[in-house]
Amino acid sequence: MYFSDFLIRAVLMGLAAALVAACGGGGGTSATSSVPLENNVMAITVDSGPANTGYNVNRLYASVRICVPGTITCQTIDHVLVDTGSTGLRLLSTAVSPALSLSRVTGGTGFPLLNCAQFVDNSFAWGPVATADIVLGGKTAASVPIQIIGDPAFNSLAAACSSGGTAITTAATLGANGIVGLGLFKEDCGSGCAVIPANGFYYTCADFTCTTAVATTASISKQVANPVSLFATDNNGVLIDLPAVGTISAPSLSGSLIFGMGTQANNQLVPSAVLTTNASGYVTTLLAGQTLSNSFIDTGSNGLFFDLASIPVCEGASIGFYCPPPASRVDLSATLVGTNAVAVLVSFAVDNALSLFATGQPVLPTLAGDIGYPQIFDWGLPFFYGRRVFIGIEGQPSSLGTGPLYAF
């Protein structure tokens, strides 16, 4: 598992991979919800992931279509991770057809603009920024800056991003062919990167030889962007609609990603709670006497991650997950509190991760682990099972309020 830590926003954003024990046998049932046919809907699924990428658990995928801007020269890329904890489309170079020949974005000096995304487990995504039309379901965002991860033409410059970490360059490393970040923010960095060169996100070539990368500013229009905020309509947020899982595991789960909040008949909801976040995208979680003020809700994390000393942790290949005694499920509850002082009680359960992994199934609703950050509760993908969860984009008004916000 790993979590991206975007420094300017200071939001710990999960792009969780399942670095767990090899899969075994096991039963389970598929859970499915119908996918509406409106043009603001696209299908999403939790399944075993791209071929030859190992055992992926609790990974939410969609197919994303990219096109050369203004043309019908397009490619559909499957098994792109849907991540409400990050911003922008990031595709592996190996997944993008060379025939597209997407135009590269340049920095202020005219050299290629390079993007860096660093993760808490010391892995990182590095690559140039390119421009593409992004098609999600029936919606199109035109001429959007995206990141091409692991482009071999720029791999020699990756040391500027790595901090000694491990590069994400393959689907096996990521557990997906890319990431579509549909989170709370319009750009991956925002106004800070437009004025501060040493921002940690953006770099360019030092000269025409492009043998050295140097930090640079990036205007808002050139930053990797949330495609939903660039739709002509249905652009104020997203709704993740996934069914509940009635068993300890399941082989797949299908649901809907619905664009817009209160804009069409299929995205109307009177939620039990509307939680506004602070400027960094955080809400507060109250758990067992702890006040976890840097909490967030994130489809990109494959479990619920929080620190609670009373639950035993796993060892070996499953380190990072909780392992209470087998058949001794831990039932817990926590209170989520928004900056608007709205509070809601959430109940959840934790099962032994080794027992869950032994099922060999990709849908594990009671998977949880420790995170090693005392102020954080990462409400990962299991939180979304059986809920309709809105993610409201910063500055965008809706019937639920103006983002950034969560509602469910």
Would you kindly provide a written description of the structure presented here, covering whatever features stand out?
- It is a single chain.
- The chain folds into two domains: 3-230, Acid Proteases (Cathepsin D, subunit A, domain 1, Beta Barrel), CATH 2.40.70.10; 268-407, Cathepsin D, subunit A, domain 1 (Beta Barrel), CATH 2.40.70.
- The model is unreliable at 1-37 (pLDDT under 50).
- The protein is mostly beta strands.
- 55% of the residues are buried.
- The strands form three sheets. It has a seven-stranded mixed beta sheet with strand order 22-21-18-19-24-20-23, with no helix packed on it. A six-stranded mixed β-barrel has the order 5-6-12-7-10-9. It has a two-stranded antiparallel sheet with strand order 1-2.
- The longest helix has 6 residues, at 353-358.
- The protein has four helices and 26 strands.
- It is globular, with a radius of gyration of 20 Å.
- It has helices at 159-162, 171-174, 191-195, 353-358, and strands at residues 3-6, 11-14, 31-32, 41-46, 60-67, 74-83, 87-92, 113-118, 123-136, 139-149, 166-167, 178-182, 202-205, 213-215, 237-241, 253-259, 274-276, 283-287, 290-297, 304-305, 330-337, 343-350, 368-369, 378-379, 388-392, 405-407.
